[in-house]
Amino acid sequence: MDDHIEKRQYRKIIHIDMDSFYASVEQRDNPELLGKAIAVGGSPEGRGGVVATASYEARKYGVHSAMSSKQALKLCPHLIFVYPRFAAYKEVSRHIREIFHRYTDLIQPLSLDEAYLDVTDDKLGIGSAIDIAKEIKQAIKEELQLTASAGVSVNKFVAKIASDMNKPDGLTFIGPSKVEKFIEQLPVEKFYGVGKVTAAKMKLRGLHYGADLKRLSETELANLFGKSGLFFYKIVRGIDNRPVEPNQETKSVGAEDTFSYDLTELAEMNGELEKISQLVFNRIKLYHLSGRTVTVKVKFSDFKQITRSKSFAEGVTTFESIFDISKSLLAAIDFTDRRVRLLGISISNFENSSGNERDIYQPRLFP
């Protein structure tokens, strides 16, 4: 009787994430930097700016992306700042994509150093997603002298988390029979969309792991976390049917930050806007984009959210313009008796944009 039961077809998804990408390229191209704590971006002596990415030697001291140069130097006084070379990173990324295309055309880039691959039906007929991930990692190592980490599973959510589990140069496979248990044991802060504030809110309610979220009904999760609650309900049961979507154009580029304490002073908010503006500028420069609309997002302590936008005849292309426009949009908002828990900036309405588009909008992260 069992012979007539159709075997369920699972997708084979790989998430590839380059290890400390910008910093690794710099160390590869300049042997004097090998083994040293370096930060790409920021500025020496803490004169403004934020870190785009840090080498693993610097990360041991707590230095990470989106950190101010001043804070990074406090943590690691011997930190070496390196000016970013976006053209070099894009060329390396182009080579990495060429390696991906040897195995599949279902590739969804998330940034220059990160992508999903659907290898359910791979070009070479290899069949094993694990073997394909091994070959990709080896090709990147041999052809580019860089390392990548890979996560392999049946959906995008699990594959992405798996790729981060054994960095650097890791490969983690979460098979279909282990997906639900894996998610049940996952700390809530590892879930997509769960930042420091949401994680704290969850823990106050005794929700520490996926298994805790799984005990709540769909209605309960929706009441607590809105649309994210509906996502949590499905994902803790291993349900993630999002396809790998290739050939997407960029619709918007943005960054945001949720603060550890609520902001009440405009000067303090402008200080945070400056950091976020730098991240957004780095992104549009990286992708050679010019957007005509700047949007500021504000989320208050009561979780109410507003946005303010301004559009221009020509594209916004400089850090100074992004920061100045964002400050003026913020200044027009009435903050009387209101406390701010999140600020965000995005650029959209790109020149020559059309068709199948995507957002590059992440909480203060940088490739």
UniProtKB/TrEMBL annotation:
It catalyses: DNA(n) + a 2'-deoxyribonucleoside 5'-triphosphate = DNA(n+1) + diphosphate. The active site is at residue 114. Residues 13-195 form the UmuC domain. CDD domains: PolY_Pol_IV_kappa (cd03586). Keywords: Cytoplasm, DNA damage, DNA repair, DNA replication, DNA-binding, DNA-directed DNA polymerase, Magnesium, Metal-binding, Mutator protein, Nucleotidyltransferase, Transferase. Its cofactor is Mg(2+). Monomer. HAMAP family: DNApol_IV. This is DNA polymerase IV.
